[in-house]
Amino acid sequence: MSEKQSRRQIEISWPDLGLMVTADLDDRNPALADALWDSLPYRSLQGHALIAGEHLYHVAPIPKLLHTPHTTRIPDRREAPDGTVFCSGLQHLGIKYGTLTEPMPANPVGRIREADLPALREAGGVIWDAVYSTKKQIVAEVRRAGEAGGHRIPVLGATDADASSLIADVAAETEKIWLAPPVELDGLHQGIIPSQAGNFGTVLPTLLFVNGETRPLGYAAYGGLVRAAVQGMPMDSLVHMARLLVGVPAEFLGYCGLEPLWAFTQRFLDVVDRLDRDDFYAVTSQLALYINCLGGWNLQLYPWDTGDHLRQQQGVKAGA
Q1: Which of 71, 95, 121, 302 registers the highest number of CB atoms within 10 A of its CB?
Q2: How confident is the model over 115-157, as pLDDT tens digits?
Q3: Cucumopine synthase C-terminal helical bundle domain spans which residues (predicted)?
């Protein structure tokens, strides 16, 4: 570990829970650690893995996470020590606090101190209850150790006037919903659906489809466009892929109630043909952060305990 990295410590606290842990950043992925360090401080809605096990993650307001390459990758994060801190190309800061089931490669940037693991596990249990059933909105604060906390949404620059205006509006909307549920999603989860999407007055299928479309739109479509722009894909191909990937799901989500997302998408598609690479990167990065924020709120608001009567059958084969 380099001397520079060994001196870098971050604090992750959950003020509503009265809990805090300290992590030491290391030099396994210095570019990712730098991106995290340079973004501090920030606050974010804390989430919890829903199918992968005892893992915390939240959307980090760090555009560089979408495309910064890793130096070291753990082939199977199940084997990482408890307390390992990861930065993800899905724009997440994650922390393993116990047993995981998903054999997923991951990019470590540090580790929670051993003395803080009990507090981490306590936080994990409460946060799981919040996401799964109580719906208490728990905020994580990430800051440099010993320094003040804070919060800011990055705003990227563009030279095209319409692109710059779009970025400013997307950033303002992201700021508005970063720590408070979007009005349209909150209403949707209360059964307020102006388009009446959902057959015969049902709500749960619409919620499921909205969650299922929003996540890949942010993670795969916009995240992929950002990475392709950074990696040098020709501009005509970038524009073509943008038109193939984002219009249909965004229009569907607009029908389901996410009208601001659809409006932003239409503005993007109106200008995409004339954007240079830097402006394309700026617009898609800003939209990725916004949509990933929407995805985080979907996971928080969704009534997961509706299926509490369904439990896995251990040791039973299908069809038995």
Answers
A1: 95
A2: 999 999 999 999 999 999 999 999 999 999 999 999 999 999 9
A3: 164-301
Taking a C-beta distance cutoff of 8 angstroms, is the pair 187, 257 a contact?
yes
Q: Which long-range CB contacts under 8 A does 170-178 form with residues at least 24 apart?
A: 170/264, 170/286, 170/287, 170/290, 171/286, 171/290, 173/260, 173/264, 173/290, 174/286, 174/289, 174/290, 174/293, 177/293, 177/294, 177/297, 178/43, 178/44, 178/45, 178/61, 178/151, 178/153, 178/293
Contact by Cβ (8 Å): 61, 316: no
The CA distance from 98 to 120, in Å, is 10
How buried is 48 (Cβ within 10 angstroms: 0-12 exposed, 13-18 middle, 19+ buried)?
A: buried
Q: Does any domain span residue 1?
A: no
In terms of domains, do 139 and 246 share one? no
Distance CA 140, CA 129 (A): 16
Asked if 280 and 157 count as a contact pair (C-beta separation under 8 A), the reply is: no
184 with 125, same domain: the answer is: no
Indicate whether 247 belongs to any domain. Answer: yes
> pLDDT, tens digit, for every residue of 62-103?
999 999 999 999 999 999 999 999 999 999 999 999 999 999
Looking at the structure, tell me whether residues 186 and 244 fall in a common domain.
yes
Longest dimension (CA), the chain: 63
* Whether residues 140 and 175 fall in one domain: no
> Structural domain of residue 30, as residue ranges?
8-144
